[in-house]
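Example record used in the benchmark description.
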Amino acid sequence: MLTGVMSIFTQMIFLRSAVLLAMTSLLVLPQWTYSQDAKLSYQPKSGLELAYQVNIAVEDGDDIVKFDGVIRYTVTAANTDSFSLAYRGGLTEMKQAKPGERGSQPGFGLRGFGQDGFGGPRALTFPAGPFGPFAKTTFAGKTLTMNKITLKPNGEVAAMEGDSHLPYLLGNVSLLPFEMLPNDNNRAWRHNAKLSVVEKSNRGYPFGPRGPGSPFGQPDEKQQAATEFTDYAIQTEDTERIVLKKNYQFNKPKVVDDPSMDITGEGIWTFNLRDHLPEAIDFKQKLTIVDGNTQTAFPISIRYQRLSADAIAKLELDAQQKRDEVNKKQAEDKQRAEAPLTALEKNDSMQSLSSTNTGKLTEALDFLRRKTPTEPDLDVAAAVEKLLKHSNSKIQEAARAALVNWSPEFGLRQKLNAAYGSHMPVESTERFIESNTPLYVGQILQFQQSQGPWYAGEVVELIADGKIKVLKRGPFRQEHILTRRNLQLAPDGLDQPRQSAKVTKIGPRTWTSVSDGTKIEAVYLGFDDGKVKMRRADGKEFTVPLERFSKGDQDYVKQQLGSNNDDPFAP
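Model output (structure tokens):
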């Protein structure tokens, strides 16, 4: 196992030092035959559309991991000093067992490695995760993403917005085609860089007070040195293309408990002289990691090929055809969903909804859930509604999902319940709460602070001074003590699970013990499981069995609860 990189939320990044910028040294070889105007440089025309078919394969243990796809560029601006590209694309990852192998085995893996390739392998990222570099993480290069890139004529990155990282130290896929070019007409040259290795780590939990999920996170940081160089040499040339041999080496030596990492590679890169753009690459490299006595190698092949204008046009045509097919299917599905039930469908559904067989019930409810009739059938809606009280919780859940489409009133109530169960703002009802508006513990309403947005809250205490303690609903629950002017009633259609526990009076009252006549002053807070919850003037809260109070006190509690089917005193 790798050491020194296993802590949670660790990042290690290779960065150029501010003073150790990449330097190009030129080998003394004969100049090639083209004129100064034809020297190797990137000179795309503004408005040009580019596309490359990319195929990458990595041998990772018993698996071959492939990254395939088409990446596209639009040249948005171009002049003699630089040119800008709008990149869009992403590669699809696929894993398969090597021939003769059974599949993935536990052990060394580099799912978590990434890099920040500014013109080549320039940065290495260890992702946040409990398994350090072995963690399976999300890389932007494996999803559809967009970058804005500005390059100089020699391939140096002047600016970049966005991220398209790939794992296994493959860098930003958006920069993959662009190699560093010489500043003069030399047939061979070396791009040499000295790098700083920065390891950053956040200790603790991801959303803790100092974790990466917190704005106060303070990462630890340490630096190491690393080097890389790339050799280029022209092999063949004609009026259209130049074919170059590329050799690459990267090294980060072992330091204390951190492993050493090496990359070596060679291959062929083709440059298009007519368009002054990359044409293709066929490159193989090997990433080797040494940690203690463990050495692991990852052979990697990298290929890309620039697509012709005709191929790009075919891609666009195929994409449009796929979009048309999807739109057609969606329209057909919508038409079927909105169509009323046939006589046979209704008969079968009604029979299944009255069945005791959970399989038939589930199948019928799933069918009705996928229907969105413009004129819902009231018979079907009533049959589905009965299943909301089914003994099987999964049937209840399926009935709720189906009933949304068959009962507009129920659908509206479900939306309200979802909105008032969330921590997000809700729309103001403008149903103001006056001094005599009855409230009760457990009531769901809306509140605001300092003229801010309205949020869903639940009454947890009616305080003697007229203030209300409210608990914000949703995952981030927090209590607030507010005045009535900061509260509003929720919509009538909202479910109020504790509506039977209404409180119509706020303030302390005198309670009398039925056994010895002892009296206490306390605020009534609620009734649950045969016990009265109250709070004394000193702020202490406690519960007392109802039968220990006088008949007048018991009548008072009954009055607060109200007379309905949920009344525990009802005969």
